[in-house]
Amino acid sequence: MWATSLSEYGRIKRVALRRPAQSFTDQARLDAQWQVLNYTGRPDYAGAQSQYETLIGLLRQEGSEIDFLPADPSLTIDSIYVRDAAIVGPSGIILCNMGKPDRRGEPAVAGSAFRRLGLPVAGAIEGEGRLEGGDLVWLDDCTLAVGHTYRSNDEGIRQLHALVGPQVEIVVADMPHYRGRADVFHLMSILSPIDRDLALIYSPLMPIRFREWLIARGIRLLEVPEAEFDSMGCNVLAIAPRRCILLHGNPATAGALRAAGVEVIEIAGSEISQKGQGGPTCLTRPLLRQ
After folding, report:
1. What is the pLDDT of residues 89-131, one digit of tens each?
2. How far apart are CA 79 and CA 18, in angstroms?
3. Residue 69 gets which letter from DSSP?
4. How far apart are CA 265 and CA 285, in angstroms?
5. For a 10 Å CB count at each end of the chain, is N or C smaller?
6. What is the 3-state secondary structure (H, E, C) of 111-122?
7. Model-wide pTM > 0.70
8. What is the pLDDT of residues 47-75, one digit of tens each?
9. What value does the CA radius of gyration of the chain take, rounded to a whole number of Å?
């Protein structure tokens, strides 16, 4: 039976990850791909392994069951960012259809792994539909925010409507062009729910109508300063209500969270996050929340 809280802040009971050994593979592969895939710098493989093991250790300390996704010849180093290939819906896992062409192989590999684990796969985004997990944010069991970006299009959102069913309200945030098609810019780049009534946001890139909608829902918005946006201050993983993982190097954001009563765990992410522009949310695919 499929039963999970559809939010981004419930306590994580089960989560899918893909270790650097199954995504980055080795330094030679990183050296061959990082520039082609628009990373901002060359990741160090040994450093990435060390930083990733810290993340694994934190999740295990929280009591989270971890499923490690496999390597596959169709994958690139981007496959370390497992959130984008699949989302969790009311009836099971929904496989995405990646907007970044180099990542098109990821959903099928994830789907096969989830089926082997006995997890229900409710459907997939197909054809001309494009959808990436970083553009989807569950605010509660019946409310799903979706970013219309260069990675997620109208057809993908239309198919998503059909897969989650009429009981789910989908609110579309029309995102700005920002740095263009080649950049990694998802809804979760500017929005990280911390609790039912608290979210971290970066207002300069947030659509006005969507921002006003969040406020009307009674959600308190904590602002990430401009100086901490590129260091991924807004990409924060809630592992339980008002308890989250944040990347080192964002002291103002950490301070604002703590002032709001949030427990903040800071981790290093230079090799696994900042260079590939994928923070703690991007590195994880929560499967069951409580």
Report:
1. 999 999 999 999 999 999 999 999 999 999 999 999 999 999 9
2. 7
3. P
4. 19
5. N
6. HHHHHHCCCCEE
7. yes
8. 999 999 999 999 999 999 999 999 999 99
9. 17
